[in-house]
Design goal:
Shikimate_kinase/TSH1, metal-binding, cytoplasm, 52% helix, alpha/beta, P-loop_NTPase, Shikimate kinase
Length: 172
């Protein structure tokens, strides 16, 4: 296993936890949204605004090919990446997928602090997140590892992820 792939809702902590795990394992860290922004020379919000969601979803699908031949990397996906274009199956074939299952109220609090989410209006955060969560959970649960993040701080989550990865490596 040479890739760890974090999936989950916007605000779930994929980047925070993914970066910490990559440091622990001394692996390269990739945030797919930042990767796309760098390749396109534009922010995710601008890509959505100027070229539309379908264009962005195609970009997400296409960048997965860039990671196929790479090893020793931790990838944090955008919240919608696993949902479209059969990407969840592709992610599962690329590496060990880890779903950070974060309670809706925690997601709301985190997203209130971040206004760069193109699919979430600051005016109706909770309602929009509940709709997204309902639509996405079934696909997220196809991940190899599911981490229940309720009532846990980031250090507890990082330790749980590392312990589960070790268990998975033993069973390979």
């Amino acid at each position: 296993m040479s890739k760890l792939i974090f999936i989950g809702m916007p605000g779930a902590g994929k980047t925070t936890i993914g970066e910490a795990v990559s440091k622990e394992k001394e692996w390269r860290f990739i945030d797919t949204d930042k990767y796309i922004e760098s390749r396109e020379g534009s922010s995710i919000s601008n890509i959505f605004k100027e070229k539309g969601e379908l264009y962005f979803r195609d970009l997400e699908k296409n960048i997965l090919k860039d990671f196929e031949d790479k090893s020793n990397m931790v990838i944090s996906t955008g919240g919608g990446l696993p949902i479209y274009n059969n990407n969840m199956e592709k992610l599962n074939s690329l590496g060990l997928t880890i779903f950070l299952d974060t309670p809706i109220d925690e997601l709301v609090e985190r997203i209130k602090k971040d206004n760069k989410r193109p699919l979430i209006s600051q005016n109706h955060i909770k309602v929009e997140l509940e709709t997204l969560l309902k639509d996405r959970t079934q696909i997220y649960k196809k991940a190899t590892i599911i981490i229940d993040c309720e009532s846990k701080n980031k250090y507890d989550i990082i330790n749980e992820v590392i312990n589960k990865i070790k268990l998975f490596e033993i069973n390979l």
